[in-house]
Amino acid sequence: MHATALRSTLPASRLGLRGFVCIVLLAVLAACGFRLKGATPLPFDTLYTNIAENSAFGADLRRLIVATSPNTRFVTDVSQAQARLTQISMQQSMREISISPEGLVEEYELNLIFVFQLTDAQGRILLPPTTLRSTREVPYDPSAIQAKQGEIGSLFQEMQRSLVDRIVRRLTSPEVIEAYQQRETIAPETESIAPAPPAATDEIMPSPHRTPFPGTPMVPSH
Q1: How far does the chain reach from its first CA to its final CA, in angstroms?
Q2: 169-207, pLDDT tens digit by residue?
Q3: Is the entire prediction scored with pTM above 0.90?
Q4: Whether the Cβ atoms of residue 121 and residue 185 lie closer than 8 Å to each other
Q5: Sequence-distant (≥ 6) Cβ neighbours of residue 135 within 8 angstroms
Q6: Burial class for 90, CB neighbours closer than 10 Å (0-12, 13-18, 19+)
Q7: CA-CA distance, 79 to 129, in Å (whole number)?
Q8: Contact between residue 47 and residue 71 where contact means Cβ atoms under 8 Å apart
Q9: Among the listed residues 91, 93, 95, 109, the one whose alpha carbon sits nearest the alpha carbon of residue 209
C-alpha cells in the first residue's frame, strides 16, 4: 500500500515541480524585460491619419493597428479624432554600391525613409517627428532586367511591411501611452504644441548615376 501510494504521488509531485520551475523562469524573464507577445491597446479610441487608406501601406497599417488595439477605430474627420497620426514624408531611393571593373553596376542599395509624428486632439506632441529607415541590397544582372524590376518592387513592399510593424511598436510604446494619459495634467501655458506638419509627401529618388532599370516599379504609399 505504501509503495502504491508513493507511486501515485510522483506524477503530482513532478507536475508541481514543473509548475514551480515555469514560474521561476517567467519571473526571471520578466526581470530581464521580456514580454510575451500580445496586443498592447492604444489609450485612445479614435485615430485620424493622412496616410491613404487605399494604398497597400495604409491598409497594412490600419489592419495591424486594429489587430493590436481592437477598441481603436479610424475616423475621416480630424475633429472627431482623439489622436492624429501624421505622415510627414516617405522617400524611396536606389543607389549603386558596387561597380565591376568594366564599369557595370553589380549591386544596388534600396532605401526607404518614413517620417511621422503623433499628436493628441489639441495638437500636443505624443510622439515627436520620428524617422524610420529600411535598407536592402539587391544584385544586378543586366541579362535579367525584367526579373530584377519585379524583385525590386517586391523588396520595397517587404520594406514597407517592416516599417508598418515598427510604426505600431512606436505607437504602443509605454512612453506614448503615458504621454497621452498624462496630457490633461499639462498646464496650458507649458504644454508643447506640435507645429502644423507639411502635407504628406512621397518621393521616388532615382539612382544618383545611371539607372539600368527603365520603368522600375517603385512602390508608392498612396
Answers
A1: 76
A2: 999 999 999 999 987 565 444 444 445 455 555 555 444
A3: no
A4: no
A5: 109, 110, 111, 112
A6: buried
A7: 21
A8: no
A9: 95
